[in-house]
Design brief:
CATH class of the largest domain: Alpha Beta
Number of helices: 17
Radius of gyration: 24 Å
Number of strands: 24
Strand order of the largest sheet: 6-9-10-3-11-12
Structural class: alpha/beta
Distance between the termini: 63 Å
């Protein structure tokens, strides 16, 4: 068979870590081919080699039967290969148009002419119904729109081989549906699609074949229609996976945390981002806030955790009967708050610090880690290694590994280890399983339930309706900055939650009801 892509016997090492171990796989023309594996299985590394970000130590790449050398992304572009990365590669202060043409500008008489590319981009937008405001700045558009910009970058360069790295990790259900429609349109034109993903149901929904990697090795390539979700999970992690969250009935006790009359406007006060938000979280319960992204959840968490300060009067945060409305981030943590942030790389870790340095990043000033301002390195090392063992954090150099060199799942485990291993009784977890594989999701859910069973109060923010239903003891739904529903997961359905999330249904939620 004439394959669009062949990667044969690919091996790539980083020091002692073998990221890709003699991996071979092929993609057919017009095929949607999924790459499945645990965090750290070598998926992104393999695709980074195909796109020229890394060079393989050994192995061969063929495009349409011809052996090629891909030393950098420019080579990949010449072979009509494009890639949308999990963390978008966009310049936030540039316009959408500038980002699309960047590196491939039209030059006339020494000046950049954007009129020709603007016409071509607009034609592509119309053809694939990928409408974006070409004059908008990247920093002002939604995450879903930013992904469209990345896709337009590939199409503008006439890519025929399109690589999507975790394309749905930051999208709403509606955006995911739209993306899949676009991808299927691409295949009708003969384009070959590679999707790196952890989401088994999405593989079943869109992929033709699936290659499974585990610990850097090729495990199997299967026909998706003939393979169950359970079998895919087993191939990925090497054992049976429990999809149901096992937890006993909640026994809520005293109120640990309260949000009272929280309001927030945008900078020019033309829109209310949070509108009279109020709720309590009790010891021994998991309260999950559900909602489509962009309905105030991000702002809510930033205000609660102190990442942003609210200038509105009348709002209050009460933690352990103490008013922390105007407290610093450190004061909130010392009052009993722990935080797993939505963006693990931006807010959760200092990427160029080691794992050990990150593990003490919010406690380094305490007596157990320093004396007279000098860090106790032996204590820090022992503490970090204990957490590595307890939380199964995998990295090439252990405590000395730079955070940016770790897989997404292990970065998340590191944050969870740091936040849950210190004194706290309120855990705020925002999108805690975003971008994680089924094995890591199972681990995170067990950790959250264990936190609840230790009589801590848990507040989770999640876009994943399956997750909302499976881990919650109580569900609050946000729509346009308001809490529009307070639901018992035992007495509701995903469909009903979806109606509240879309604004089609609304219940009057009062302080007494919460």
């Amino acid at each position: 068979m004439n394959y669009a892509i062949e990667m044969l016997n690919i091996t790539k090492t980083f020091g002692p870590l073998v990221a890709n171990d003699n991996i071979s796989f092929q993609v057919q023309p017009g095929e949607i081919h999924a790459i499945l594996g645990e965090n750290g299985a070598g998926k992104s590394t393999l695709m980074s080699i195909l796109f020229g970000l890394y060079t393989a130590d050994r192995g061969t790449i063929k495009i349409n039967g011809e052996e090629v050398k891909i030393a950098n992304p420019n080579d990949a572009n010449r072979y009509k290969i494009g890639m949308v990365h999990q963390h978008f590669k966009l310049v936030e202060v540039f316009t959408v148009l500038d980002n699309i043409v960047l590196g491939n500008e039209t030059i006339e008489r020494g000046l950049i002419n954007n009129e020709v590319p603007r016409k071509k981009i607009q034609e592509l937008c119309d053809k694939y119904a990928l409408h974006v405001d070409l004059n908008a700045l990247i920093k002002d558009i939604s995450v879903g729109m930013q992904q469209r910009v990345e896709i337009m970058k590939m199409l503008y360069r006439d890519a025929n081989i399109l690589i999507f790295d975790e394309p749905t990790a930051v999208l709403t259900p509606q955006e995911i549906e739209g993306l899949f429609k676009v991808i299927k349109e691409f295949t009708k034109e003969g384009k070959s699609i590679i999707i790196i993903t952890h989401k088994l149901n999405e593989i079943k929904a869109i992929a033709d074949r699936c290659t499974v990697l585990r610990k850097g090795k090729h495990i199997a390539t299967v026909n998706v229609k003939e393979t169950s979700v359970e079998k895919l999970a087993e191939l990925m992690v090497g054992r049976d996976v429990i999809f149901e969250v096992e937890k006993k009935m909640a026994e809520p006790k005293e109120i640990v945390f309260s949000v009272k009359n929280l309001n927030l406007y945008n900078k020019d006060r033309t829109k209310k981002l949070l509108d009279q938000v109020h709720f309590d979280v009790r010891a021994g319960e998991i309260v999950v806030i559900a909602g489509i992204e962009g309905n105030g959840q991000t702002q809510l968490v930033k205000l609660i955790t102190g990442l942003e300060i609210n200038q509105e009067h009348g709002s209050q945060f009460i933690l352990n009967e103490k008013d922390i409305t105007h407290a610093s981030i450190r004061e909130r943590f010392e009052a009993g708050m722990a935080h797993i942030p939505e963006d693990r790389q931006k807010y959760g870790l200092i990427l160029d610090y080691t794992l050990a340095e990150n593990m003490i990043s919010n406690e380094f000033y305490m007596a157990k880690f320093q004396k007279h301002g000098l860090l106790k390195f032996d204590v820090i090392s022992n503490y970090t290694n204990e957490l590595i063992e307890r939380y199964d954090i995998r990295s090439s150099l252990g405590e000395k590994t730079k955070a940016r060199a770790m897989s997404g799942g292990n970065q998340q485990k590191a944050i969870i280890a740091r936040e849950t291993s210190r004194a706290h009784n309120l855990l705020i977890a925002s999108q805690p399983t975003r971008g994680l594989d089924v094995g890591a999701i199972e681990y995170v859910h067990k950790t959250i339930v264990a936190e609840r069973d230790r009589n801590n109060a848990i507040l989770v923010i999640s876009l994943e309706l399956d997750e909302v239903m499976s881990i919650s003891d109580r569900i609050l739904v946000m729509y346009e900055g308001r809490i529009v529903a307070d639901l018992d997961p035992k007495n509701t359905t995903i469909e009903e939650i979806g109606l509240y999330m879309s604004g089609s249904k609304h219940m009057e939620v009062t302080n007494n009801e919460i």
